[in-house]
Amino acid sequence: MGCVFGKEVSSSGPPSSEIVVDKKRDKDSGNNDTGGGTADAGTGGGEVENAVVKKGDKEGGARPRGERRRSKANPKLGNPGKNIHGEQVAAGWPAWLSAVAGEAINGWIPRRADTFEKIDKIGSGTYSNVYKARDTMTGKIVALKKVRFDNLEPESVKFMAREILILRRLDHPNVVKLEGLVTSRMSCSLYLVFEYMEHDLAGLAASPTIKFTEPQVKCYMNQLLSGLEHCHNRHVLHRDIKGSNLLLDNTGSLKIADFGLASFFDPNHKQPMTSRVVTLWYRPPELLLGATDYGVGIDLWSAGCILAELLAGKPIMPGRTEVEQLHKIFKLCGSPSEAYWKKSKLPHATIFKPQQSYKRCIAETFKNFPPSSLPLIDTLLAIDPADRQTATAALRSEFFMTKPYACDPSSLPKYPPSKEMDAKLRDEEARRLRAAGKNTNAEGAKKTRTRERHARAMPAPEANAELQANIDRRRLITHANAKSKSEKFPPPHQDGTLGYPLGSSHHMDPTFDPPDVPFSSSFSYAKPPIQNWSGPLAEPAPTGHRQRRKKHNDSSSKNN
Ligand SMILES: Nc1ncnc2c1ncn2[C@@H]1O[C@H](COP(=O)(O)OP(=O)(O)OP(=O)(O)O)[C@@H](O)[C@H]1O
After folding, report:
1. In 3D, which of 345, 282, 347 has the Cα closest to residue 537?
2. What is the pLDDT of residues 125-156, one digit of tens each?
3. What crossing angle do the helices spanning 154-169 and 95-105 adopt, rounded to 10°?
4. Is the dihedral of CA 61, 66, 72, 74 positive or negative?
5. Name one Pfam family in it (predicted).
6. pLDDT band at 425, cuts 50/70/90?
7. 430 in the Ramachandran plot: left (φ > 0), alpha (ψ -120 to 50) or beta?
8. Which of 247, 421, 547, 549 should be mutated for ligand 1, with most atoms under 8 A from CB?
9. Which of 197, 375, 436, 391 is nearest to 301 (CA)?
10. What are the start-end ranges of the E strands in 150-189?
């Protein structure tokens, strides 16, 4: 991928993809995740995430709140050498950015902010705000993602640097294209410039008036799997595939976006990676069970959830907690075989292994789906990630070879704006109206609020914080009740509301509702978990600090 907005900056430095993590730095800092690795730009792959599971992570520990990483300069990741640093500053990059993310900007020159006109705020993410803007030099409408830096903390810049490096590695019609970067020598902010996309799949799916046909579902899935195939071939794991990260334009093009949690991987030299990724409803069982050795299967699982969601008209496994999520997975996909437990050696297996086994019931649950979709759903939602195969195999599946075929993207309807953000605004307006009429219909308002809360997929970092709280709670329970080596799974107070939240979609298929399990289903562990977990992974944050905690946790997630 080349230069954006004109000429390339000449460089005698390392190839643009050469990025090697300074392991010592991470060891020193107690960081449980690292990003980076060696790379081979020529092959389009080979950039390796050199993640190291730190002592704290092995013991189940993330940094306690308030403890900050020591940030030493990373000579390979950040410091591109004096010459290049000088060239980058001369080309208009701020010195701080060149110092910390020199590799990510190598060979590019920045655009000036005053060459764009902001039109509207269109989205907001964990560490960014996204604006619709006009490029005054070309007249083109673009999306500007303004990255928030916490006082220019090198860690924040590092996440952004990795996202940029990954985006620069990718070049495919179904992957959002990074068109440039906007900053200036004296600036403290950075904007990523993307082609503008009118919709996201979550927004469309939540729209009360839209129900996808089979050819449309095939069209979206074809594009999603093609984009994933490209990412995986370039050794990139997305690690947060969900509807709101699948952007759509008015020509029917679907593009995978938000590579903030993405990571390079090398299938031949596996390195441990964090399990604290992927939004809860789309998170595969191996991550919920703490896997740090994983691959393309995690994105394929999420794709399977999306395929079934598009056909069902509602999210298929909307868990509110990790425990509930695993429970929903086991109920639908069956509990893992003994052979799998043995082979996978998953860190949380001793805690979450169900006492009773669950039978897989995908075919019965989705009996109203097109028959050709069932083998594909069955493959993508395999409990053992090795059985999920690849995006390439999925694209060759019977689903796409059977009539009615996928429609052409250009034949997809032209929808009115329908971002997940719009759905949120609709909800907020409804909430405001309810608050106004609260006294007249308090009970109705309460019910609707519950539906809304459940209708949103929980981002990975928040959900993972909850997982920690859960593990810690389990450990405490084990201590308190050393005689009892089993406990209810899920806890009774959560199980009472198992099943699908009402109104999680406006056009649900009423026939789809996986069978619930009796409350008495219990999960046990073979050994007390204390033997595996010697310290808290993360401090459960008080609710008043939700936003801070989200960012804090996100930092650790995004860092690996
Ligand atoms: N190219 C684009 N065109 C139009 N809208 C976009 C584009 N990129 C992002 N958005 C909007 O901005 C929102 C936030 O963007 P993005 O997901 O990349 O940010 P983030 O900070 O990484 O978010 P998250 O916390 O969900 O990981 C998206 O959900 C989407 O609605």
Report:
1. 347
2. 777 899 999 999 999 999 999 987 766 677 77
3. 30
4. positive
5. Pkinase
6. low
7. alpha
8. 247
9. 391
10. 178-182
Backbone angles phi, psi at 524, to 5 degrees: -135, 170
| Minimal-distance CA residue to ligand 1 atom 20 | 125
Residues with CB under 6 A from ligand 1: 122-123, 125-128, 130, 143, 145, 176, 194-197, 200, 244-245, 247, 257-258, 260, 419-421, 459
Q: What are the distances in angstroms from CA 470 to CA 70, 187, 418, 467, 493?
A: 29, 42, 35, 5, 13
> What local confidence, expressed as pLDDT, does residue 65 receive?
32
pLDDT for 254-284, tens place per residue? Answer: 999 999 999 999 988 889 999 999 999 999 9
Edge-to-edge, what's the strand order for the sheet holding 190-195? 116-124, 128-135, 141-147, 190-195, 178-182
User: Does 342 show up as a binding residue in the annotation?
Assistant: no
Coil, strand or helix at 129:
strand
What CA–CA distances, in Å, run from 217 to 223, 389, 524?
Answer: 10, 21, 40
Q: Among residues 396, 217, 390, which one has the least CA distance to residue 312?
A: 217
CB atoms within 10 A of CB 355: 12
Q: Which residues contact 211 (CB under 8 A, 6 or more apart)?
A: 313, 507
Choose among 370, 380, 376: nearest CA to 216.
370
CA distances from residue 196 to 112, 128, 133, 145, 250 in whole angstroms, order as listed: 18, 16, 9, 11, 10
179 vs 325: CA distance, rounded Å: 37
- Give the number of other CB atoms < 10 A from CB of residue 10: 10
Global ipTM: 0.96
Whole-number mean pLDDT of the chain?
A: 70
Task: Say how far apart CA 128 and CA 259 lie, in whole Å.
Answer: 12
Looking only at the bridges linking them, the beta strands covering 246-248 and 190-195 are unpaired
Q: Give the residue carrying structure tokens 């403290």.
A: 188
Task: Indicate which atom in ligand 1 lies nearest the CA of residue 240.
Answer: 27
Determine the residue type at 353.
K
Out of 126, 130, 552, mutate this one to test ligand 1's pocket (max ligand atoms within 8 Å of CB): namely: 130
pLDDT in tens, 451-501: 333 344 545 444 444 334 433 433 333 333 322 222 222 222 222 222 222
Q: Give the other-Cβ count within 10 Å of 363's Cβ.
A: 13
Question: Length of the chain, please?
Answer: 560
